[in-house]
């Protein structure tokens, strides 16, 4: 399973970004997908997850109402729409794939994409 994340960048507080993660080498709908992030000097933390066909989602409290996860199985892509960004959202964002949902322990990880939010 290969996961390629993109869409990170630098924005001011209050701005928006949309992250994408495309999978290859996998039957995409067999995997629940998730987003995690890691701020400098901190542990990696869960942000959001979505079930195999996108019926269910799971989202961390600090981003609820601001972030939305979605997926397009035909495109083998999962998205994270991030609005009203705050400086504390800064970090490297990773997409991940797992065989169970909900889960905080995925089976596969993609490379990260850096999100920087300035005040």
Short structural summary:
By secondary structure, the chain is mainly β.
Written description of the protein model:
The chain has 119 residues and is mostly beta strands. The protein has no helices and eleven strands. The chain has strands spanning 2-6, 9-12, 17-24, 32-38, 45-50, 57-59, 67-72, 77-82, 91-98, 108-109, 113-118. Strands 2, 4, 5, 6, 9, 10 and 11 form a seven-stranded mixed β-sheet that branches. It has a four-stranded antiparallel β-sheet with strand order 1-3-8-7, with no helix packed on it. β5 (45-50) and β6 (57-59) form a beta hairpin. The N and C termini lie far apart (37 Å). The model has no long low-confidence stretch (mean pLDDT 97).
Cα separation of the termini? 37 Å
H/E order of the elements? EEEEEEEEEEE
**Overall pLDDT confidence:** 97
> Judging from the principal axes of the Cα atoms, what is the shape?
globular
For the secondary structure, the number of strands is: 11
Portion of residues within helices: under 10%
Provide the gyration radius in Å.
13 Å
What does the main sheet amount to?
A: 7 strands, mixed
Q: What's the tally of helices?
A: 0
Which ranges are low-confidence, i.e. pLDDT below 50, for 5 or more consecutive residues? none
SSE-based structural type: mainly beta
Strand residue content = over 45%
What's the arrangement of secondary structure elements?
Layout (H helix, E strand, L loop, with lengths): L1 E5 L2 E4 L4 E8 L7 E7 L6 E6 L6 E3 L7 E6 L4 E6 L8 E8 L9 E2 L3 E6 L1
Parallel strand pairs: 2-11
Antiparallel strand pairs: 1-3, 3-8, 4-5, 4-9, 5-6, 7-8, 9-10, 9-11
């Amino acid at each position: 399973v290969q996961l390629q994340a993109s869409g990170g960048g630098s924005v001011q507080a209050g701005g928006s970004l949309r992250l994408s993660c495309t999978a290859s080498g996998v039957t995409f709908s067999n995997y629940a997908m998730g987003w995690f992030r890691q701020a400098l000097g901190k542990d990696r933390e869960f942000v959001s997850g979505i079930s195999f066909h996108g019926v269910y989602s799971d989202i961390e409290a600090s981003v609820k109402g601001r972030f939305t996860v979605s997926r397009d199985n035909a495109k083998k892509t999962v998205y994270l729409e991030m609005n009203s960004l705050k400086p504390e959202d800064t970090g490297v964002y990773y997409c991940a794939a797992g065989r169970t949902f909900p889960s905080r322990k995925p089976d596969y990880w993609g490379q990260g994409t850096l999100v920087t939010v300035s005040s």
